[in-house]
From TrEMBL:
Protein name per its UniProtKB record: Sucrase ferredoxin
UniProt-listed SUPFAM superfamilies: Thioredoxin-like
Stored Pfam families: Suc_Fer-like
Gene3D superfamilies: Glutaredoxin
Length: 309
């Protein structure tokens, strides 16, 4: 016998991504707000909390987690879709800084995960280097961390497979990026662009547009460089103006007054102000992940004003 849950899905097959889609939850303004990224190759199982559960050398995962908090960084484990090592010796590491104007990416091969502790994230955040060489390229990071959330594997793995076949050098599976209910999720680094609700075809279209210098606005969760309300404001302004160029819109100022965020943008020779109200209503609650034991308020970012300056 199966039991039902809100949204009409049976409890034995309930999925947070399907429930989010059923309630027509917007994806805009849902990207994790983070600029500093470190990605460390690990082909073994990741577990639910990758840095702590994966079979990394003793103490490395806990120290990487501590440094993520210290430097306000997102530190992820990565692997190829094939789950085979990407190099004959050592492991691949990437460091990305998602600056909205001049994003940076570094990469190299180290002997093992312990060497990742030698990378200077503080200097990297300040505009310097981690100690890795600059990397003249980009990477497509698809969340497939199924032990963290079932949706990430069920919806992320087909996306990773399609991208790995089309763009083998750029594509990586990664551990949890945030926003399980928007799976399949992908982050394009070094720009820090989050995309959600992807399937293989839409993922290929997003990457094709990105390689041509454009954003795919309908599936864009946001630019991780900015707070979530500013992400929602940028996407709303781009829709209004029909601007899809990656560098076509830039934040020139941001202020917060209670639950209202006012963002000033530059677009070409013009300026625009967009105001967004952020709410978390208890009347609109839901289970936000497959493992959630209880419902939580669903955040909303509503545009309440938009004007040319």
């Amino acid at each position: 016998m199966t039991t039902s849950v809100p949204g009409g899905q049976a409890a034995d097959r309930w999925r947070c991504a399907a429930a989010s889609l059923e309630r027509d939850e917007p994806v805009a303004g849902t990207a994790t707000h983070v600029r500093t990224w470190l990605l460390v190759e690990h082909v073994g199982p990741w577990g639910s909390t990758a840095l702590l559960d994966a079979r990394l050398p003793d103490g490395v995962g806990a120290e990487l987690r501590r440094r993520a908090q210290e430097h306000r960084a997102k530190i992820l484990l990565i692997r190829r879709y094939s789950s085979k090592p990407s190099t004959g010796e050592g492991i691949r590491v990437f460091a990305a800084y998602a600056d909205p104007v001049a994003p940076r990416l570094e990469s190299g091969v180290v002997a093992d995960a312990r060497d990742a502790l030698d990378l200077d994230l503080g200097a990297f955040r300040a505009g310097g280097t981690t100690g890795l060489p600059p990397y003249d390229g980009e990477i497509y990071c698809v969340c497939t961390n199924g032990r963290h959330d079932t949706c990430c594997a069920e919806l992320g793995r087909p996306v990773a497979k399609a991208l790995a076949q089309a763009h083998p050098e750029e594509t990586w599976e990664v551990s949890h990026v945030g926003g399980d209910r928007f799976a399949g999720n992908m982050v394009l680094l070094p720009h820090g662009l989050y995309y959600g609700r992807l399937d293989p075809d839409s993922a290929l279209s997003v990457v094709a547009a990105h390689r041509a210098g454009d954003l795919s606005l309908d599936r864009l969760r946001g630019r991780s460089s900015y707070p979530m309300a500013a992400q929602a404001a940028e996407i709303a302004l781009r829709h209004e103006l029909g601007l899809t160029g990656i560098a076509a819109v830039r934040v020139a100022g941001l202020s917060v007054d209670g639950d209202v965020t006012r963002v000033v943008f530059e677009a070409g020779s013009s300026g625009y102000a967009v105001s967004v109200r952020t709410t978390r209503s208890a009347d609109a609650s839901a289970r936000l992940t497959c493992k959630a034991a209880r419902a939580e308020p669903v955040p909303r970012h509503d545009v309440i004003g938009m004007a040319e300056l």
